[in-house]
Design a protein that fits this description.
Number of strands: 4
Strand order of the largest sheet: 1-2-4-3
Radius of gyration: 17 Å
Helix content: 25-40%
Order of helices and strands: HEHHEHEHE
Number of helices: 5
Largest sheet: 4 strands, antiparallel
Distance between the termini: 34 Å
Shape: globular
Bound molecules: iron/sulfur cluster
Length: 198
């Protein structure tokens, strides 16, 4: 007789190559090309990132996944202190869409968003009960966010990486990843998500 498989919760055991391969397999279906484990001590949280959200970003105070709806830098530091391992997710897209708010851009954002949340779910089911996603850019699941009214898809609501005041470039340097600004229309740009793991 077949019994239901019970997965034990993980307790600071890192992540196996087998699970990483499964994650990568799934992530490529969502336009994410790399899944890189790293120590959370490499995550840089900076006040200036929060400043850039508050001043100069059109999304400020318009989306549940951006400030001021998301935790402030002090709170973020405390949250990150509760983790030791994270996964960096890397995707890439063509530059012409970056500053546009068109269907193609939104489709890419939604794909990446759903992919990241589904990887988090996969990790939870593999025993990583603390797994929590921070997604690249801001939530575009709805054409216009319901903020400040109730979120329409609360189960998929997560903060964006940037809203967590994470200095993405500084963090990438710490992880040993070189990156450049895509300054020409024909360049591709990379986008990054993080899953706080354990
Ligand atoms: S799911 Fe919709 S309402 Fe909720 S944060 Fe995303 S865009 Fe806003």
């Amino acid at each position: 007789m077949e019994t239901n498989k019970v997965v034990r919760f993980n307790d600071d055991k890192g992540i196996s190559n087998r699970l990483l391969t499964r994650l990568l397999d799934k992530s490529t279906k969502y336009g994410l090309n790399e899944v890189i484990p790293f120590n959370v001590s490499k995550i840089l949280v900076a006040e200036w990132v929060h400043l850039k959200c508050r001043y100069g970003c059109t999304k400020y105070s318009t989306n549940w996944c951006c400030p001021p709806a998301t935790p402030n830098p002090d709170k973020v530091r405390k949250i990150i202190d509760e983790y030791s391992l994270a996964l960096l997710l890397v995707g890439s897209a063509k530059c012409p869409d970056f500053y546009r708010n068109n269907k193609r851009k939104r489709a890419m954002q939604v794909r990446c968003w759903k992919g990241t949340v589904s990887l988090e779910r996969m990790l939870f089911l593999a025993g990583y009960y603390k797994a929590f996603s921070l997604v690249g850019e801001c939530c575009a699941l709805c054409q216009t966010c319901a903020y400040p009214d109730d979120c329409r898809f609360p189960q998929e609501k997560r903060p964006s990486v940037e809203s967590f005041s994470i200095d993405v470039i500084g963090t990438l340097k710490n992880v040993g990843i070189e990156t450049t600004v895509a300054s020409n229309a024909n360049d591709s740009f990379a986008y990054y998500g993080i899953i706080l793991l354990e």
